């Protein structure tokens, strides 16, 4: 189905289900620009009374050794029995009061939906997106680029993804070209919302800028300044 060029395992068939193990103790680092999200959700909401709850999204990239300049983004297909069945999205979900911080809530959702562990939260992607729940709650969604850790023996190939079958049934690592075309090989990709598409385009733009600057030898401080202006 057109995947021979990448040889990425598990993308055309449902991968192994997420293991029923406790949520790990997260030890990720994060960029100083994200300090405002390194607080419990209730603390953040106390200074942002216009919101009733916080949701997060995680943008996880991987670049194959055969084409390191072409980053791939992890996206997941919503289960047939869920709302917006068959649509694609990035991992994410609502923060809980039990989460240590909003960033921990993002890491927890990433683990629960994808089975990968956040190693570093790189930065915020795009602005806040506000939507309403069925109960009328005003929810603020914040999206983060996240680097993930690897288990022993996982140095080659993409990070191993294990989905929660109750929420997602397939996953893909897509390039920007594939995401914009709405197709990877023989698989059609339709995203959940226009807002989801926009944050994905923004994430690819930031990632390419970051990679290009690093190749040119630009300092980390200059990269951060440029990305903050994007």
UniProtKB/TrEMBL annotation:
Any one Pfam family match given in the protein's UniProt record, by short name: NUDIX
Hydrolase recorded as keyword = yes
The domain of life is: Eukaryota
Q: Which SUPFAM superfamilies match?
A: Nudix (SSF55811)
The UniProt keywords, alphabetically, are: Hydrolase
- Entry's InterPro entries? NUDIX_hydrolase-like_dom_sf, NUDIX_hydrolase_CS, NUDIX_hydrolase_dom
Q: Where is this region: Disordered?
A: 1-24
UniProt keyword annotation of Hydrolase present: yes
Q: A GO molecular function for this record?
A: hydrolase activity
What are the Nudix hydrolase domain coordinates in residue numbering?
A: 51-204
What protein does this entry describe? Answer: Nudix hydrolase domain-containing protein
Origin species, per record, is: Coniochaeta hoffmannii
């Amino acid at each position: 189905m057109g995947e021979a060029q990448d040889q990425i395992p598990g993308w055309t068939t449902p991968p192994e289900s997420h293991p029923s193990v406790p949520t790990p103790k997260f030890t990720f680092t994060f960029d100083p620009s994200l300090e405002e999200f390194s607080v419990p959700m209730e603390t953040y909401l106390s200074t942002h009374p216009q919101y009733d709850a916080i949701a997060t999204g995680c943008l996880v990239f991987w670049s194959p050794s055969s084409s390191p300049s072409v980053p791939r983004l992890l996206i997941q297909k919503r289960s047939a029995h869920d709302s917006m069945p068959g649509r694609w999205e990035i991992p994410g979900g609502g923060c809980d009061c039990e989460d240590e911080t909003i960033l921990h809530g993002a890491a927890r959702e990433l683990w629960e939906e994808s089975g990968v562990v956040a190693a570093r939260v790189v930065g915020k992607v795009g602005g806040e997106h506000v939507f309403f729940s069925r109960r009328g709650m005003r929810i603020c969604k914040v999206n983060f680029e996240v680097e993930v850790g690897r288990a022993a023996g996982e140095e080659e190939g993409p990070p191993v993804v294990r989905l929660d079958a109750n929420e997602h049934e397939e996953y893909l690592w897509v390039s920007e070209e594939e995401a914009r075309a709405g197709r990877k090989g023989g698989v059609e990709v339709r995203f959940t919302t226009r807002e989801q598409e926009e944050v994905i385009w923004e994430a690819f733009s930031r990632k390419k800028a970051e990679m290009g600057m690093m190749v040119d030898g630009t300092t980390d401080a200059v990269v951060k300044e440029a990305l903050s202006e994007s």
